[in-house]
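To assess whether the prediction recovers the assembly geometry, we first specified each molecular entity separately, as shown.
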Amino acid sequence: MNPLPIIIDCDPGIDDAIALLSAFVSPELNILGICTVCGNQPLENTTRNALQITELGQRTDIPVYAGCHQPLLRAPIHGLFHGENGLGNSHFPLPEKQAETQHAVNFIIERCEEAVRLDQPLTLCVLGPMTNLATALRIQPQIAAGIASVVMMGGACREAGNRTMTSEFNMLADPHAAHIVFSSDLTITMLPLDATHQVILTPEHVARFVNVSGRISQPLGELMAFWDRNDPIRYGSRGGPLHDPLVIACLLAPALFSTQKARVYVEHESELCMGQTVADWYAKTALTPNVNIVTGVDSEKIFALFYELLSRYAEVRP
Amino acid sequence: MSPQRLIIDTDPGVDDAIALWLALASPELELLGVTVVAGNVPLQATLQNACKIVGLSGRTDVPVFAGAPGPLVREQVYGKYAHIGAFSDALVPAGALQPQEEHAVDFLVRTLRQAAEDNDPVTLCVIGPMTNIALALGMHPDVVRGIRQIVTMSCAFTALGHRVPWAEFNVYADPHAAEKVFTSGVPLIIMPLDMTFQALICPPDIDYLRQQGGAPGTAIADLLAAFDRTDITRFGRDGGPVHDATTVAWLLQPDLFSGVAASVGVEVCGKTAGYTYADFYRKLDVESNATVMQTVNERGFFALLKQRISRYGDPVA
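The predicted structure of the complete assembly is given in tokenized form:
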């Protein structure tokens, strides 16, 4: 089978880094490019971090494109759990490679237009605030025809928020961008906190990842150890939710995820609940359901998948 | 003095057409490009109109770029005269001018980043919904440094609105884009309805343009006849406003206008989305971001317009 053509739009970010490292060793995925955005960290840091992770994963063949330096309208906010540089306490060498000169938004537009011409629509994996995709859609709406689906991590439907009472970080960081994407006609698969809080990366898991992951084991272990929220009251155990990597798992093993389809609305007007994602579970509104919301996950099998994926870094490369 | 470098962002539109023809006849302005946005009518029609307007001026050296087909966040609204769509060939004859391949937002980002690098910032004349400008500002931090000033026909402060009671159309059509522009830090010169309602074009001036203004002059007269802008009950006298043209007139002859510095803001949501305020009496503890024009010398303005448009009728020029 032909590998699935994807673009990964992200703001690394520790969990973004784990997602990237997992995608790098998946021959089922053809990663056309990595786009970065202002999110967990300012744009220059997320771009540098993305380049560092491509070097760590020895996938510098994948181009990195810097995207929007700020949310569409709101002042930038940044993540609280990613350390000073966005990759915990890890210190990676300054990247040798630079980001491409093309803007991430132009890259998305160009590849989607090509996908329309070739009739080979792409999958967009959005792991951060949705600014790049929303901007691309507003500049060139026809690109929607080149997008098979958007698989995104963000939002909280029945679960409470993780940055405010109601709102998940990626949605709160750019609620207008999220509104633009969720009110488009795109096919969307959403991994909200309801799903990601079912997959907690505990210290026991981390020990096993360190054991299996060969040449990236030390930096991977550091990233994962930093991710421990140490908040058993909130998460039921030590550890942190494996947010962004679930997007990659969802592409590779959709059978491990169960979904419910509903229309999703993003609050972008009222400050109290800004960024809240409201799912119309019971068809109370007139609009057709447009989002496959992941509600259930097979956590055990997902960890087995990631052990297997990341153990590929232990294989001797030819 | 070297001409002022200018980009006009527009949604033609009758008064946009007058603004464009005024700029295209004025050597003090170096028009780098015309970027087009959906607004008064859908993008396809504003684009076609812009190409016809620039083509009819004979200035086929000026590139026209298609921009955003709709607003950033709100649902799309068109102007009061949306039903007219593209200008008919009877009103504005079709020419050969074609739009560029490059997207308006890409042109803006490319030109303004270069202007920032060259330390030679460009004036933007924004006479439609501000979607293109907002998107360009969001693409790169250098864009803002490439903009010298934004002269915009938008807002209503002491005047009531004209598309809805609480808002001026360009802001109403994309309040989020206006918010992005107003908070960008770029110096703003705002031509609000309060002022544009003071300059009403009347039959003698229209007749003069038809007789002396060559093909563009005839087109202006035909457009104003086809889309009657007079409103005696509102304006108390004969004549119709030519809102957008005041932006270009200010660039050419600023002493025709008087204004005050004020902090300007916009309501982006709720029932009154698009409502704009100016803090004329300094009730807010914030610095002003705009010069808000309050009066115009009506006779001086139309004298300038007639003088410039009549150049199209001068076979020597």
